[in-house]
Design brief:
By secondary structure, the protein is α/β, with parallel strands linked by helices. It has helices at residues 24-32, 56-68, 83-86, 89-99, 109-118, 135-143, 157-166, 189-193, 247-252, 267-286, 295-304, and strands at 16-20, 37-41, 72-77, 103-106, 124-126, 148-150, 170-177, 214-215, 223-224, 241-242, 257-260. It has one domain (16-179, 239-304): Alpha-Beta Barrel (TIM Barrel). An 8-stranded parallel β-barrel has the order 1-2-3-4-5-6-7-11, surrounded by 5 helices. Helix 1 links the parallel strand 1 and strand 2. The structure holds iron/sulfur cluster. Residues 180-182, 185, 187, 189-190, 199, 204, 206-208 line the site of iron/sulfur cluster (SF4).
Length: 308
């Protein structure tokens, strides 16, 4: 039984389902459970230092595995690079190209220009960390040679539609997973509270998700009641994103790729979420005028979500 039904456009290009691959096992799980593409990080330049990440050999093997099953692989190069990072960039990009990756995901303008000058035909996706929030910014990046823009997570559907109407580059949108409380991840909270663990260098301690209490200045140690749910209060943390009920509107708006967040999430989480979205996209594609959310998808996703 599906719960809601609403009218949408009957012309829908099937969007790509893009899943995180935190390590080689997760890559296989994501592909087997129905991802059209996965994104992963190498040992350098990736914004998920805590994920298992891939050696060059792992990357090459993972890409072969994905390609044999018709899936694409994008490699993250999305740290905010410092001067010391730049020297080893050409060698790393060469290894990514040698591995057969279908594209790279980058944020830093210097990294993007260097990658494109070395490999003009390599597809470069602009990371959400670049905070693309309007069509002029999207057009700017398109003119720099970026083939896909991962939009900022703060955008509304009308804003996405406006960008779609004015920009030819592919558009990618996050549909599921944890949300940074700061502007698209530009955040110093972890750096400040977790002894220098820098979110912008791939080492976020997720400090926004710690449990916090309210203390009045003159009563140290006395925590005032502050309740959000039975597990406590997470006043700096946003709820997880879940747009499975809105994929018809996003596809209708011309979004090319639906991205699931979470290279550090478990294999079980990954399998569950990828399968639900795979079924949802297939259902949408088969029924473009009558997309309905299957309560079973929500139930399955609900079992593995942290912040509903
Ligand atoms: S501390 Fe929270 S808001 Fe800041 S970067 Fe990490 S996950 Fe995002």
């Amino acid at each position: 039984m599906r719960s809601e039904k609403r009218e949408v456009r009957s012309e829908i290009k099937k969007p790509e389902l893009l899943a995180p691959a935190g390590d080689p096992e997760k890559l296989k799980v994501a592909v087997i459970y129905g991802a059209d593409a996965v994104y992963l990080g190498g040992r350098h330049f990736s914004l998920r230092a805590g994920a298992g990440n891939f050696s060059e050999k792992d990357m090459a093997e993972g890409i072969v595995f994905a390609h044999e099953r018709g899936a694409r692989v994008y490699v993250a190069l999305n740290i905010f690079a410092r001067n010391d990072d730049i020297g080893s960039l050409p060698e790393f990009v060469e290894s990514v190209v040698r591995s057969g990756a279908d594209g790279v995901i980058a944020t830093d303008p210097g990294v993007i220009s260097m990658v494109l000058s070395l490999y003009p035909n390599l597809k470069v996706h602009l990371s959400t960390q670049a905070n693309t929030t309007n069509w002029t910014a999207a057009r700017f990046w398109q003119e720099q040679g970026v083939s896909r823009i991962v939009l900022a997570r703060e955008l509304s559907l009308p804003e996405i539609k406006t960008i779609r109407m004015r920009v030819k580059a592919e558009l990618e949108v996050f549909v599921h997973g944890a949300m940074c409380i700061s502007y698209s991840g530009r955040c110093l909270l972890s750096n400040y509270l977790a002894f220098g663990r820098d979110a912008n260098r791939g080492d976020c301690a997720q400090s926004c998700r710690w449990r916090y209490a309210l203390v009045e200045e003159k009563r140290p140690g006395q925590y005032l009641p502050l309740e959000e749910d039975e597990r406590g209060a997470y006043i700096l943390s946003s709820r997880d994103l879940c747009l499975i009920g809105q994929i018809d509107a996003l596809a209708g708006a011309g979004v090319d790729s639906f991205k699931i967040e979470g290279r550090m999430k478990s294999v079980h989480y990954l399998a569950t979420v990828v399968r639900a979205y795979r079924e949802a996209i297939n259902f949408l594609y088969a029924n473009p005028d009558g997309y309905m959310v299957d309560p079973a998808w929500l139930a399955e996703i609900g079992k593995v979500s942290n912040r509903k």
